[in-house]
Amino acid sequence: MSEGDSDLRIQPGRIRSTRTPRPKSFINQVLRAAKKAGHVGGGAPGASGRRGGAGTPGHSTFGRGRLGFSRSRLFSPGRRVVVAARIARHSGKAFRSAPLAAHLSYLKRDGVSREGDKGILFDAGSDRADDRAFAERCKDDRHHFRFIVSPEDAADLTDFKAFTRDLVRQMEADLGTRLDWVAVDHWNTDNPHVHLLVRGVDETGADLVISRDYISQGLRARAQELVEIELGPKPEHEVRHALEKEVAAERWTRLDAQIRIAADDTGHIDLRPETSGASDPEIRRLMIGRLQHLEKMGLAAPAGPGEWMVGLEAERALRDLG
After folding, report:
1. Every domain range in the chain assigned CATH 3.30.930.30
2. Most CB atoms within 10 A, among 40, 54, 143, 231?
3. pLDDT reading at 1 higher than 50
4. What pLDDT score does 234 carry?
5. Which backbone phi and psi does 230 adopt, to 5 degrees?
6. Contact in structure between 60 and 263 (CB atoms under 8 Å)
7. In sequence order, which ranges of 71-176 are alpha helices (DSSP H)?
8. Cα 47 to Cα 65: distance, rounded to the nearest angstrom
9. What is the C-alpha to C-alpha distance for residues 39 and 47, in angstroms, rounded to an integer?
């Protein structure tokens, strides 16, 4: 979950793990695609099909317009929040195998609280919500919503529960209805986050419909606004530190979003100083470091000095990991 490029997709079913490195056949597939596109790794400039003018077919141009990486985007002082979402329908085999009550119980498991204890559900008016009552209210609904909200600076917020309540109040204003919800904050990962479950009916009892655009963009924007109101713009040294951490992150990052923009349609990216358009040495260093890490993960392959091929499924794999 850019940042602006990390649009959320509601996908039913279980997230597949991709922590195991991809087999070598993937690398061979990438290199075959590179060769087919005219990017022959290891050859000298001028080799057959390798180089040409700006209009030569197969030659990588950043954003198809030879644009350099965007420093203003990468070093934006805005506070970042990642939001993931899913609609859980109350019918079908998938829901019967993982009913709401079981999911709520899992969210309350040991070791997830800030103190390392069991998680405690909360809602609009209580720091100890009744999960069984919430599941009972939902049992005849068509669906419910599951959100994961992860501010990058969650640990710096004064009160994570108050942040969540403010966010839901803003959602209610945007959607024009009161919401029935419960949530629990988790601190058992490097990125503290809150699991927010919203009942799938509005205050009149009708099915609650939330537009895809609001889920993918609006909710994240509201969360970012709330964080920035409390913490203010992010200082540049903190932005730089966060980008350094992204080099080895096993999730979709701002660096990956810029790599996607810079790569051509085959996944080829050219970071050689004389051709890449990445005139900022700091950004180039970050990009090369990230591509080298993607190579270790089996999601990219070298295609020559300063050049890589990024797998077309790399974004999906990194988003699933995140």
Report:
1. 81-231
2. 143
3. no
4. 87
5. -80, -45
6. yes
7. 71-74, 93-97, 100-107, 131-138, 160-175
8. 24
9. 9
Instruction: Tell me which amino acid residue 35 is.
Output: K
Q: Write out pLDDT tens, residues 56-85.
A: 333 333 333 344 566 777 888 888 898 999
Question: Is the pLDDT assigned to residue 14 strictly greater than 70?
Answer: no
CA 105 to CA 8: how far, in whole Å? 26
Candidates 3.90.550.10, 1.20.120.1200, 3.30.470.20, 3.30.930.30; CATH matching 81-231: 3.30.930.30
Please enumerate in sequence order all residues whose Cβ is within 8 A of that of 68, keeping only pairs 6 or more positions apart, or say none. Answer: 62, 276, 277, 278, 279, 280
Q: 299 phi and psi, to 5 degrees? A: -110, 0
DSSP notation for 173-223: HHHTS---EEEEEE-SSSS-EEEEEEESB-TTSSBP---HHIIIIIHHHHH
Radius of gyration, CA atoms only, the chain: 22
Dist. CA 161–CA 26, nearest whole Å: 44
172-201 average pLDDT score: 95
Q: How far, in Å, CA of 48 to CA of 10, rounded?
A: 44
* pLDDT for the residue 28: 55
Please say if the pLDDT value at position 48 is more than 60.
no
Q: Give the side-chain half-sphere CA count within 13 A for 256.
A: 31
DSSP states of 14-38: PPPP--SPPPHHHHHHHHHHHHHHT
Closest CA to 261 of 3, 5, 1: 5
Question: In terms of DSSP bridges, do strands 143-151 and 81-89 run parallel, antiparallel, or are they unpaired?
Answer: antiparallel
The answer on pLDDT for 225 being more than 90 is yes
